[in-house]
């Protein structure tokens, strides 16, 4: 392919795409430039389908290279290691809108790779990769029902900012990412500071309008340099097999099999149906190879027909009905906070751990504004939660994504460091899963934070809505609180979390080619109604407000402010003073560059002593000041008293006792604890102290 370059103005900056310049052996490649941000985006696919799979093997990578921001990676190897959390989350945001646009029966391995080469903080590389992946795939020969485009929106002081800079993204009230096709919205991801629903809808469709300009730009490229899409081997189930299945298991029988409010019962019914069909097809080896997929497709058609045409849900609920709810706190002893939230057969327990700010997570990434975070939310999904058995291999991309979504939902209601000087780690353990565990983890985490004594501003609840569509845009039904089966066989998983006053997080995934505006508006309306119900009927009755104090086993923290000029006095030469303080009192001490001091410990008396000593160290001596200290050195002319580590004063022999003494040792010995009064400066300009005048 000959080298060609295309440019457009996007949000006041020039977006340039170089094609045919590098990576010419990829099926599609785009060297993206937005400001000085440069990302190489490639799309490749195997020539043949992967055998023995029943899914589309799409892999998306977002490679953060530290040279892109002029840094050498940390650690011993000085080389980038496993993908960062930001890399994983960015890859997921690229995957989610694009995956439904590939053919459903496509089984060729496909990889979308995004290599970050340079970063201009005015132009976020994540957005450039999202656009580049869509462009590389659209101009390639890989079958794809695109193009699609992505826009990000921030908000500062109530004003929307299209494709904000990194600083605006980090400090604004809205982080919204919207992907669209030429007709519909296909993906929404948002973190927000309690944005009202109508404002959020306005923001979503502002992004959708910008996306249309980008799609027109991509279409021009496709028309000029796009490759013809290659043929592929379809992995669709033969129609004659479906016809045979329906004769053996009529639709009415399949409806009975899937119509149950108990997941285990339903799965047992489907197993029986599968065994019945396996016996019938014993002599058809090619059909047996795809029998599980065929039964899955039959279930899907049955469930979708029941919901869309008959308005019957598999567990018998009404369309807007939420499953039975339950909330508990303090279910685990000795931890700093715990809560369990149950919704039907979905059950999450979240444990809160509090620690000094020194234990916040350090981040070595491309964003210069974010080097650490004090709130960490992690989510685990063990196989037993769905009645399966497999070894634990650590968190996958789904687990990382769910933890990040819960974190995003709760950050807007957390107290500031000044109000609550703790690092917080929340771990959501999935005990049982049957739909929308990520939103259940938000509800459990709200209660766990309040039980731990974290003074959150407002409780947050989350819920998910589903969708089943027909043949036309106005033939659809939105489902409140989807369970697993409705998620698997439906067209949408629209998760929204927020307080009573507004939205704090959105994550929308779909399996179709987009949503109309009426569907988006109805889903947002439904999720608000459900959030209010969960807050009023489960969360607040379980724990109405944050506890006034942290728990018995949580570390206690005293805050104080010192003059930043005095930080060196507290730290001492090579940390000698602060280490002596820590050793003497058994506390942990954190000092910020602004002079904010946090004293952390379990013994309140020792914490108070540490605070007193720091006050002495950072306060200049003045006449009339009463102090206590220990004798640390004796000379012929007097004694040296240590009032705090690194803070000393001298008492002249004439100021030790009211009567005349010939030797200091006649009255004092090393280690004596004495009270003194400051007499002010002597003739030499030095501070003078007296023991006899303090009595």
Automatic annotation (TrEMBL):
CDD domains hit by this protein: KH-I_PNPase, RNase_PH_PNPase_1, RNase_PH_PNPase_2, S1_PNPase
Stored PROSITE patterns: KH_TYPE_1, S1
Its EC number(s): 2.7.7.8
Keywords: Cytoplasm, Magnesium, Metal-binding, Nucleotidyltransferase, RNA-binding, Transferase
Keyword Cytoplasm: yes
Catalytic activity: RNA(n+1) + phosphate = RNA(n) + a ribonucleoside 5'-diphosphate
SUPFAM superfamilies in alphabetical order: Eukaryotic type KH-domain (KH-domain type I), Nucleic acid-binding proteins, Polynucleotide phosphorylase/guanosine pentaphosphate synthase (PNPase/GPSI), domain 3, Ribonuclease PH domain 2-like, Ribosomal protein S5 domain 2-like
GO MF annotations, alphabetized: polyribonucleotide nucleotidyltransferase activity
Entry binding sites for Mg(2+): 487, 493
Record function comment: Involved in mRNA degradation. Catalyzes the phosphorolysis of single-stranded polyribonucleotides processively in the 3'- to 5'-direction.
Family listed: Belongs to the polyribonucleotide nucleotidyltransferase family.
Official protein name in the record: Polyribonucleotide nucleotidyltransferase
Gene name in the database record: pnp
